[in-house]
From TrEMBL:
It holds the Pfam family FPN1. It is a multi-pass membrane protein. This is Solute carrier family 40 member. GO terms for molecular function: iron ion transmembrane transporter activity.
Length: 586
């Protein structure tokens, strides 16, 4: 079925994705025009790149700094950080569909401006509160028997959570909707913009935490709060101006179809596919009757219950819309990739510290991983142009899984602290230490850190993107040198090389969602996708909390690979169905 037919079925504007030949012809013509560089700098793509870079830089600084601030406020205890991570993940999980529905039902400029304003103002106010707490912490602790401190902590977490929700809405609006319209529904241009945005995100993911970390280290936490405050105010003005200009120079952004109910979209899809076993008039009549009865029931309820029931109904309809998408399996496959410890987050860095890896070497490895991530974006554009989008996902999945086999091998390689006796449920802690001479000898270099390695983990999330939190482990002593470095070398070799396939796969699924979701449902479906990502991410933290010791890490690696394999298997099923449907259509 063509993209034009899909758009008309969903109540959206009729669009048709252009081929790469047309794109190359236009690009060649554009290069022949004098002053094309100036035209590009004033064009919507460049403005979106600059706006996105400012937004991503601010997000990365804030995500890094808020974790450090909460630890400093609570006496170097990770409780507040854990609570913050739980609140952020839970709020997106519960409200993802509502955020997406709000994006669908409102004009694009209103959504972008409101999300931008709420996000930056929330971070600004939160920074002011943090500055006051850092400056007058002793006085605040003496007011109301210390309860004012609890109030301040609560306000900080709530404001940070509101900023994250607004950032989620802005990401859905710009990166999942605006750029599709800006590219004129051209597949080649869309792939290029997606890859460029991801490259910007990769660079800011490394540089932004380093920048704000240096400010906090060389100056103070108060100066760090002021730096973030000033950045957000300047960024708010610049991004507001750039997004407003993009909205003016791209008239198609002002044309937005009304959001349709899920049942209406589903009925139109079924009728267009020739499913005549149910008469259309009967379905419409029954639906209208159900709708009228539903409205009557809603009218008899108090206003607060009406609003609550509407919210629940919207969430339910959003999840139903997500499930009925043709790219449902591809989206679920991407979500499953979040349940993993094989990323450059605080979990992996903490484990590396227990294995005698220095902080400077970890920083170098993170830089190399950023380069391989950039290579993944380049690989995506090349593969998509040569083999097509669906086949690009298959190749990327195989590459990702193949590299992760090195991580599995690291579990059983020399130098691995994994203790298989942990699989035996009825062995006590003391007996597990004495279980066999070889097991105790392999644990020797990690037992001294047993207390420090059992700390809660920092839930800092950004779509499959990891934030550098290694500064939080500066005061943790590194472990004694292991018997062999083969295990840790294989682990990081697998993690670093796997990022090539990971980012190529991520971009593939992102573009599949952009191309195959109806314009009237882009917001709600991507909102549910964000909820699924956070849900699977929560599972990964629960998994780590259940097995926090370095000796457990090998088991976590195996479980992570199982989840990742399951996710890629879901994509393979989607690819099989898509290719089968294409053969039937031809």
């Amino acid at each position: 079925m063509s993209q034009q037919a899909d758009a008309s079925q969903c109540g959206g504007v009729v669009v048709e994705f252009e081929s790469d030949d047309i794109r190359d012809a236009r690009a060649k013509k554009a290069r022949s025009i004098p002053g094309s560089a100036l035209i590009y700098l004033k064009g919507p793509k460049f403005l979106i790149y600059v706006s996105g870079a400012l937004s991503m830089w601010g997000d990365r600084m804030w995500h890094f700094a808020i974790s450090v601030f909460l630890i400093e406020l609570y006496g170097r205890n990770l409780l507040l950080t854990a609570v913050f991570g739980l609140v952020v993940a839970g709020s997106v999980l519960l409200l993802g569909a509502l955020i997406g529905d709000w994006v669908d039902r409102n004009p694009r400029n209103k959504v972008a401006h409101a999300s931008l304003f709420i996000q930056n103002i929330s971070v600004t106010v939160c920074s002011i509160v943090l500055m006051l707490v850092f400056l007058y912490k002793q006085r605040i602790e003496q007011i109301w028997d210390g309860w004012l401190t609890v109030v301040c902590y609560t306000v900080v977490i709530i404001l940070a959570d509101v900023a994250n929700l607004a950032s989620t809405a802005l990401t859905i609006a710009i990166q999942r909707d605006w750029i599709v319209v800006i590219t004129g529904y051209n597949r080649g241009h869309l792939a290029g913009m997606n890859a460029t945005m991801r490259r910007i995100d990769q660079v800011t993911n490394i540089l932004a935490p380093l920048a704000v970390g240096q400010v906090m280290t060389l100056a103070s936490n108060v100066v760090g709060c002021g730096f973030i405050l000033g950045w957000n105010l300047v960024s708010l003005i610049v991004e507001f101006f750039f997004l407003s200009r993009v909205y003016r120079i791209v008239p198609a952004l002002s044309v937005k179809p009304p959001a349709m109910e899920v049942d209406e979209v589903y009925f139109e899809r079924r009728s267009s596919q020739g499913e005549d076993n149910v008469a259309p008039p009967q379905l419409l009549t029954e639906g209208n009757c159900n709708t009228s009865l539903h409205l009557k029931e809603m009218a008899n309820l108090p206003l607060c219950f009406q609003r609550f029931r509407w919210l629940v109904s919207t969430c339910k309809d959003g999840w139903r819309a997500y499930y009925r998408q043709p790219v449902f399996l591809a989206g679920m496959g991407l979500a499953f990739l979040y349940t993993t410890v094989l990323g450059f987050d605080c979990i992996t860095t903490g484990y590396a510290y227990t294995q005698g890896i220095s902080g400077s070497l970890l920083s170098l490895l993170m830089g190399v991983s950023a380069i391989t991530g950039l290579l993944g974006t380049v690989l995506f554009t090349r593969l998509r142009k040569t083999y097509g989008l669906v086949n690009t996902g298959i190749i990327s999945s195989c590459l990702h899984l193949g590299c992760l086999l090195l991580c599995v091998c690291s579990v059983f390689a020399p130098g691995s602290p994994m203790d298989l006796s942990l699989l035996m449920p009825y062995i006590t802690f003391n007996s597990s230490i004495d279980f066999g001479g070889m097991a105790s000898q392999r644990q020797k270099h990690t037992n001294s850190l047993r207390g420090g390695s059992n700390q809660p983990l920092l839930p800092d999330r950004s779509s499959i993107h990891w934030t550098n939190n290694t500064v939080l482990f500066d005061n943790v002593p590194t472990g004694t040198a292991p018997e062999s470095y083969i295990s840790i070398i294989l682990l990081f070799l697998g993690v670093i090389t796997a990022r090539i396939g990971l980012w190529s796969f991520d971009l593939t699924v992102t573009q599949l969602l952009q191309e195959n979701i109806c314009e009237s449902e882009r917001g709600v479906v991507n909102g549910v996708q964000s909820s699924m990502n956070y849900l699977m991410d929560l599972l990964h933290f629960i998994m780590v909390i259940s097995a926090p010791q370095p000796q457990h890490f090998g088991i976590l690696v195996i479980i992570s690979v199982i989840f990742i394999t399951t996710g890629h298997t879901m994509y393979f099923l989607y690819a099989h169905k898509a290719q089968k449907k294409r053969r039937l259509d031809t």
